[in-house]
Each structure stands twice: as structure tokens, then as C-alpha cells.
Amino acid sequence: MVDGVVKGAMLVLASKPRVNFAASQMSPTARAALMSAKDAIVGCSEALLQAVEKVERAALGRTAVLLEGETGVGKELFARLVHAAGQKTGKEPFVAFNCGAVSKDLLGGELFGHAPGAFTGATREGRPGRFEFANGGVLSLDEIGEMPLDLQPYLLRVLEERAVYRLGDSKPRPVDVRLVASTNRNLKQEVAEGRFRKDLYFRIGVVKITIPPLRERAGDVEMLIDHFNRKFAETYSTEPLRFEAATTELLQRYSWPGNVRELRNLIENLVLMTLTGVVTPRDLPGDFLESAAQPSSAPLPTGPGPTSEGDEIARFDEMERRAIERAVANAGGNIAAAAEKLGLSRATLYRKLHQYRSRT
């Protein structure tokens, strides 16, 4: 365009995309499962899309995948994406197991199965473990860092030999299982401190993918708010909430130490507890406001205009003060009822009331 007149055109030819032969061999059921797994991961930030792309590439192989990330980032959703992206028929099993959810004494039997009467409490018939249930598909082991040292050689043997030995049985049972391990720990440091075997670490970490925390996913908070708002409104048969601009800005600027899980729980709380249908900063739970008021929870602004850390803290203090005043007024001056509504102890509420009154 020159002075508003079309003078020519330019055609941009993209480079030839890599052909995903695995995807081309998928059945319609498997392709539908892949789309569903990708739709479950809500967001469009560059950090998130890069993680999704890495997982899809990793799924083309058969080696183990190690997913690293903070608590609440949604590592199981990415484990399910590895499963979905690597399917052909759409009927391959996906078995999820949390290594920190059972006692050390039971963990071996849960993973590898046991022979009849192998230990006290074992069944007389024996039973398969999670590896056998996942045969032909994916076994997702969450909190892999919680696995006791004395069980780690058994896991390494299964991965190396592609066969499982039930506890108390010397018979190998061939298994074709893709392992996806997840952790919120620094396994490299765990190895250095002798809490995790180096050989197992290298075996499960052939492909390591870090799932980004929510604070690094620019623009995704608003999408997740809308997603969970609609989801819980449907669950509880109510209208979706509307959020004031100030509330949305506060939620976007919060550091979300609990990541997507924390955001999900907050929105469910608001859908249940907000009476007017419009969420103002005063409607946010007291414990959230208290966390948001901490200096570490208020990242430096990315937009134009200088804003000091002191200004941010003062702003959060003012929001908290208004939330406390409203709760006390609604409770008719009953401090115990107001504290329960805010999710604070009475001692904490008395301290904050004294703190704010001393400033006036």
C-alpha cells in the first residue's frame, strides 16, 4: 500500500512442515483422544505452547519422559498428552499412580504385583501391579522422587529388561510400557544428596520437559479464569460470574504459588460464595488477600508507568482492609463469624483490625 493505493502483493511461503507419521497412522478414535487431551490444557502463552510442542515430539518415541514442574502446574494433563499423542488405536491403556500416596511397604506390590502369599496381607491368588495393567500403553508415575531407595533398582530392572517380576515370584512377565515420570523436586539435587539413584535418574530422564509455572505464562490467567468460571457455573447450575476490571488485574498480577490448581480452587470458591454475581476485590477470600499482600506475591509491573513496591503493598493492604471491614459489618460485629468467613483465626483478625485502626 502506497498512500492508500494497492501497488503490489507479497506471497510468503512457509517452510515445509515436518510430517508426523505417527499422527497419520492414528485411528479416528486416537485422533479424537489427542484433540481432547490438547483441549484440556488451557492457555495460549508461548511458554505453554512450547511445552505442548515438546511433549508431542517426545511422544513419537518410546523412551521414558520426565516431567518437571512445581506443584499444581498440571503435570498429569501433560502425561495424558504423551499417551494421547503416542496412540494408534485409541484403546491403549493409561494408568496413573502417585508414588507418594501409599506406604513404602505397599508401594512395591502396587507397582510390580505380587505372587500368592508373597507377604503378610498378600492375596492367595496373587495380583498384577500397575505395570501389567499399563501393558501396551502409558504408566504415569507422579512424585517419582518419593520412591524409596530400596525399590528403585526394581524399577530400573523393569525399564531395562521390559519385563516385570511380581514380588515373591521369579517368573518374568514381558511388558510394553511407556513410562512418564513426574516430579516437583530437583532430582539432580536428590541424586547428589544420595536420595535418588543416578542410574535410574539418567534412565527416566532421557527426555526431560519442564512445565512452566503459571506466573511465567503471560496472558493465560484470564483464559483460565473464564474456563473455570464457565465450568463451575455449569457444575452448580448457576450463571457465570462477572469480574470487575480491578479484580481481574489483581488476579493477573498475583504470583500463584499453587499454580493452576490454586486458581481453579479460588474460582470454585467464588462461584459458590459470591452473592451478587459480580466479583469485586472485596469478594476475594481473606487468605488470598493476605497472600497477595506479601511483597513476593507482587511482581514488578510490565506495563508503562513506574510503580514502586511500596505502592503495591499499600494497594493490597487497602483491599484487605476493605474486605475485613465488609466481613465484620456483614457479621454484625461478630468477630468469630467474620473470621470464619474470611478464613482467618480470630487472633489474626483482631491483630489486623488493631493494625488498620492504629493507622487512622
CATH class of the largest domain: Alpha Beta
Number of strands: 9
Name of the CATH architecture of the largest domain: 3-Layer(aba) Sandwich
What is the approximate shape?
globular
Percentage of β-strand residues: 5-15%
Q: What quaternary form is this?
A: single chain
Question: Which fold name fills CATH's third level, the topology of the largest domain?
Answer: Rossmann fold
Describe the structure.
- With 360 residues, the chain is α/β, with parallel strands linked by helices.
- The chain has two domains: 26-212, Rossmann fold; 216-298 and 309-357, Orthogonal Bundle (Helicase, Ruva Protein, domain 3), CATH 1.10.8.60.
- Helices cover 46% and strands 9% of the residues.
- It contains 16 helices and nine strands.
- The protein has helices spanning 21-24, 28-39, 46-58, 75-85, 104-112, 130-133, 152-161, 187-192, 198-204, 220-235, 245-253, 259-273, 286-292, 309-330, 335-342, 346-357; strands at residues 65-68, 94-98, 138-142, 163-165, 172-174, 178-183, 207-210, 242-243, 278-279.
- It has a five-stranded parallel beta sheet. The chain has a two-stranded antiparallel ribbon with strand order 4-5. A two-stranded parallel ribbon has the order 8-9.
- Strand 4 and strand 5 (172-174) form a beta hairpin.
- Helix 3 crosses helix 4.
- It is globular and about 75 Å long.
- Residues 15-21 and 296-309 have low confidence and may be disordered.
